[in-house]
Design a protein that fits this description.
By secondary structure, this protein is of the alpha+beta class. Helices cover 33% and strands 24% of the residues. It contains four helices and six strands, in the order H-H-E-H-E-E-H-E-E-E. The longest helix is centred in the first third of the chain and has 18 residues. It is elongated and about 85 Å long.
Length: 173
């Protein structure tokens, strides 16, 4: 109790020094924030790759199954592949917080590939994106990672017009 009383007495006797010290500490802390990464979640990469297989609306489950089986045959021999699973007509259960399952549809399948490591994940992604596929099969390959979004970056553009009512404005991206 005596120590606290002494600290309070010294602080009250030297008000200006305490106030100046507080301002200096505030400025140091504000300057220190420039060294902290500006992201909400820290980067946390995972070796999984999710591939959404989209077929034209109304495609039967059999046709979707055949397209997914062809994808499986072409990827099955990859050395970087540890495990794979398929959900046809539906998505996987929500096993990862940022993952949003798709609405059930006969023309949709979700393929989950687990690579041996992060380097293997990138090899799998390159192999999947290089696959020769029929025109009606569309793949959307996604990495599972927390941190800044990379799958669908937001692009902003600015419209520049010398005269507001003039048509044919120039847009710069």
């Amino acid at each position: 109790m005596r120590v606290l009383r002494h600290v309070l007495d010294v602080g009250l006797r030297h008000k200006r020094a305490v106030a100046a010290g507080t301002v200096v500490l505030l400025l140091l802390v504000c300057g220190g924030f420039t060294f902290v990464d500006q992201q909400f979640f820290p980067l946390s990469d995972r070796p999984e790759v999710m591939v959404d297989v989209a077929m034209p609306p109304g495609t039967s489950l059999d046709e979707t199954s055949r397209a997914v089986a062809a994808l499986e045959r072409q990827i099955a021999g990859q050395a970087a592949l540890r495990h794979m699973e398929t959900h046809i007509g539906d998505s996987a259960p929500r096993f990862y917080l940022p993952y949003s399952p798709a609405t059930p549809s006969t023309s949709h399948a979700m393929r989950l590939f687990v690579a041996t490591d992060l380097h293997g994940r990138e090899e799998l992604i390159r192999a999947i994106e290089a696959l020769p596929l029929p025109v009606e099969v569309h793949l959307h390959v996604q990495r599972f990672s927390l941190g800044p979004t990379v799958d669908f970056p937001v692009r902003t553009c600015r419209i520049v017009c010398p005269v507001q009512k003039q048509y044919g404005c120039l847009a710069s991206v």
